[in-house]
């Protein structure tokens, strides 16, 4: 509205200046200069407005481009984070699987030699009281020979389940060798250990396995040794092994303690 009024006023002034009857009027020159000056100012103002408009649209474009780049970078970052999280979870899983494989026996799932030796070293370092028991299935070779290796494996698993179910939570049972298990009976002296092992032996003697039309059961022999403070764990192990040998030689199906 204002622009229209301005345009109308300017047109009116231009018409007055062009009109022959006003030529020579004392205000004609001053009004003409004022008119031209105004027109010139108007052109400059319009130029400034154009520049400002261009600048604003450039700034807006730049802002949009920056925003788009930021959103793209954000999406890329989130994707990388998801990949990294997945990768870390996978690494964690693999590490756990590796750790499990390096410390446990694959057939029975029991701790292996490496793990129980670590625990033994810890017990010795902490000067804890413990008794070691080496437990060996009697005539296990015959099971394999008569019924096959698979039946032998199943029997090992069944024995393991009974061992794990019968032992106390704070004891440790490891698969020491083929048909040999090492028990770390924590905070236990030889007498307590002996009664635990006898209870264990009768539970193990009750384990049965069907193989074809036959029912298989086994007996176990055990050698015990109470750890003596100051001894390395190897010495206690050696004594338990000797006691086991004696139990085997004495006819199997029994437990013997080392001679003090
Ligand atoms: N099925 C099976 N058999 C195994 C495994 N590891 C070792 N053995 C077998 O265990 C048997 C051990 O035999 P021996 O050392 O002669 O002992 P044994 O027959 O138990 O005799 P004693 O210990 O003297 O009573 C061998 O036949 C080995 O092949 C296993 O993981 N699975």
Automatic annotation (TrEMBL):
<protein>
    <recommendedName>
        <fullName>diguanylate cyclase</fullName>
        <ecNumber>2.7.7.65</ecNumber>
    </recommendedName>
</protein>
<dbReference type="GO" id="GO:1902201">
    <property type="term" value="P:negative regulation of bacterial-type flagellum-dependent cell motility"/>
</dbReference>
<dbReference type="InterPro" id="IPR043128">
    <property type="entry name" value="Rev_trsase/Diguanyl_cyclase"/>
</dbReference>
<dbReference type="GO" id="GO:0052621">
    <property type="term" value="F:diguanylate cyclase activity"/>
</dbReference>
<dbReference type="Pfam" id="PF00990">
    <property type="entry name" value="GGDEF"/>
</dbReference>
<feature type="domain" description="GGDEF">
    <location>
        <begin position="128"/>
        <end position="260"/>
    </location>
</feature>
<dbReference type="InterPro" id="IPR029787">
    <property type="entry name" value="Nucleotide_cyclase"/>
</dbReference>
<dbReference type="InterPro" id="IPR000160">
    <property type="entry name" value="GGDEF_dom"/>
</dbReference>
<dbReference type="InterPro" id="IPR050469">
    <property type="entry name" value="Diguanylate_Cyclase"/>
</dbReference>
<dbReference type="GO" id="GO:0005886">
    <property type="term" value="C:plasma membrane"/>
</dbReference>
<dbReference type="GO" id="GO:0043709">
    <property type="term" value="P:cell adhesion involved in single-species biofilm formation"/>
</dbReference>
